[in-house]
Design brief:
The chain has one domain: Alpha/Beta hydrolase fold, catalytic domain (Rossmann fold). Helix content is about 30%, strand content about 15%. It is built from 5 helices and 6 strands; from the N terminus they run H-E-H-E-H-E-H-E-E-E-H. It has a 6-stranded parallel β-sheet, with helices on both faces.
Length: about 240
């Protein structure tokens, strides 16, 4: 029944992106921007449902990238609702993310972006960059695609098995998709710049599985993801 399916999906997403322990909400240790005010890189963090803002568990990844890169970097936590009203929250996030990239690209033409999302935040990141499928366009204008140096997603509700950029224990040929998977190949434009981490026991990116894998990404994959991002930035 449609109503039952909607309630099941809502329940799953609420469980998916439940309140998580925030590692730190402090400022990242990035080098200060140059006198022009334009850092070479902006790390945009899109937190999970009900996480304390603005950056959430992605702070550790931002810190690790900053510590390993010679480039100046500012960290921006997307100020979207991140509530369990997931439809309106995700839509608000997509709008804000597209606005942020457009505004920063205009103000700082040489700036590049690292875009990272956890749980509902990964949903926002993916739909912003490549659209939602079913005729939903991507809010981020494709003209900005070359400026996006790296994309990292943890516990993505829209995870799709079979993508070469999938990582984590689920891997490329994961046995399951996420709750509402993207079309295969939707991320083609960003494929070589993306890592989508998914655990086999994550009930959100591996719909139908069981376990607590949705909460291990910051402790388990920060170093790996940071190395990938720094490699994409060129050091």
């Amino acid at each position: 029944m449609p109503g039952m399916r909607r309630r099941t999906l809502t329940s799953a997403v609420l469980t998916a992106a439940a309140v998580v322990t925030v590692l730190t909400a402090g400022r990242a240790g990035a080098a200060p921007p140059p006198p022009t005010g334009c850092a070479q890189v902006e790390f945009i963090a899109v937190r999970g449902t009900n996480e304390a803002g603005p950056v959430g568990v992605l702070q550790g990844l931002a810190n690790a990238v900053s510590a390993s890169s010679r480039l100046t970097m500012n960290v921006y936590g997307l100020p979207y609702p991140a509530t369990s009203d997931w439809v309106n929250s995700v839509n608000a996030g997509k709008s804000l993310l597209s606005q942020r990239i457009a505004a920063q690209a205009a103000a700082c033409p040489n700036k590049r972006f690292v875009v990272a999302g956890y749980s509902q935040g990964a949903w926002v990141v993916g739909d912003s960059l490549v659209g939602g499928g079913g005729g939903w366009p991507s809010p981020v204008d494709p003209v900005y695609a070359p400026k996006v140096a790296a994309v990292v997603m943890y516990g993505d509700p829209r995870f799709r098995s079979g993508e070469a950029f999938n990582a984590g224990t689920a891997g490329v040929n994961a046995p399951r998709n996420g709750i509402i998977p993207r079309d295969l190949g939707a991320f083609a434009r960003y494929a070589n710049r993306t890592r989508n981490y998914c655990e086999l026991d994550d009930t959100i990116c591996q719909w139908g599985s069981s376990g607590s894998g949705h909460f291990v990404y910051p402790s388990k994959y920060t170093s790996n993801a940071a190395a990938f991002v720094v490699g994409r930035l060129g050091g």
